[in-house]
Design a protein that fits this description.
Layout: E1 14-17, E2 25-32, E3 39-47, E4 50-59
Antiparallel strand pairs: 1-2, 2-3, 3-4
C-alpha cells in the first residue's frame, strides 16, 4: 500500500459522506471518456434501505 492508502490497482473514486448520517454515501467511480469533451462515471448511492447505481452518467 502506498502513502495515500491505495493499492496501485485501485480504481480512482470520490466518496461523499454525510456528517449526520455516516452510513449515507455517494460514490463517483469508473471514470471514462465518451468523447474528447466529455467525462463519464458511475454514481453509487448507499444509505440505510437504499442501494442504487447509475452505470453511465456523462457530463460535458
Amino acid at each position: 500500500m502506498n502513502a495515500q492508502g491505495t493499492e496501485p490497482t485501485d480504481t480512482p473514486a470520490v466518496d461523499v459522506r454525510c456528517q449526520n448520517a455516516p452510513t449515507a454515501r455517494v460514490r463517483l467511480a469508473d471514470r471514462h471518456f465518451p468523447d474528447e469533451h466529455g467525462t463519464g462515471f458511475a454514481v453509487e448511492l448507499r444509505a440505510e434501505g437504499l442501494r442504487a447505481r447509475l452505470d453511465s452518467v456523462i457530463a460535458w
